[in-house]
Specification:
The strands form five sheets. The protein has a seven-stranded antiparallel β-sheet with strand order 1-2-9-10-13-14-15. It has a two-stranded antiparallel sheet with strand order 3-8. By secondary structure, it is mainly beta. The chain has one domain. About 15% of the residues are buried. The mean pLDDT is about 90. About 5% of the residues lie in helices and about 40% in strands. The radius of gyration is 27 Å and the shape is elongated.
Amino acid sequence: MQASPQANIGEALGEGIDLSVDYNKSINKDLWFTARANFTYATSKYKVFEEVDNSLTPWLSRIGQPISQQFGYVAERLFVDDAEVENSPVQTFGEYAGGDIKYKDINKDGKISSLDMVPIGYPTQPEVIYGFGFSSGYRNFDLSMFFQGLARGSFWIDAVNTSPFLDTDGIAGTISKNALLQVYADNHWSEEDRNIYALWPRLSDRLIANNTQRNTWFMRDGSFLRLKSVEFGYTLSERFSRQIHVTNLRLYLSGTNLLTFSKFNLWDPEMGGNGLGYPIQKVYNIGIQLSF
């Protein structure tokens, strides 16, 4: 028996910045304010990567690219019909037809193959993560809010796990578990509506390998800003607290994941490409804090 030797011959460089700012201010005996913000930018790139000679196809080289950089195909649009398929460069991903994704022939060799893959989107690991928030009080009232966000990150709509009419468990003979999402039903290519820029290609009861390649058609900007938490409270006066034999009594309303600002609006962007997973929950609370 002979085993192939393993060796670490790659080199990568990582760099970035990490900032944090805190502010505290008591304006008078009735009013106070605190704020905090943090910002992290981190990036990495390959300096040495074991790969074939890409001098004739420099777009395939991973050297100088971020570690989590994705490579894929540039989608021009959907094929308008079968006639256009017949008169376009061959796409080497199995059977395809009108309504499927049409890719760009990067190296102009008359066919779409792995030689046409290029870096697409931002890295899957977001390069910017940040947050900011404040707490403030006036007499017996207090309010706090915190936002979190990320930027310079990409994700891809999962064309396998969100495909309608399919059993994504992969168990032969089982009934399809994926329903047709309303957004796909409302915006897909069909013989009646040959929309070459529809959100979803033609519908099928099986996976179309041509459409499940890593590509720019399903690429999305993963940036978002979320109101992560907010809390509003009222602390009853010491006089009243003594009357009910407690040291402190505070009533509050709070919530988490209340608002999200994002260019992506099909589902919560933090879920990534599979909108059929368990969703991010909005939570509302009413509470009482007692100290004896």
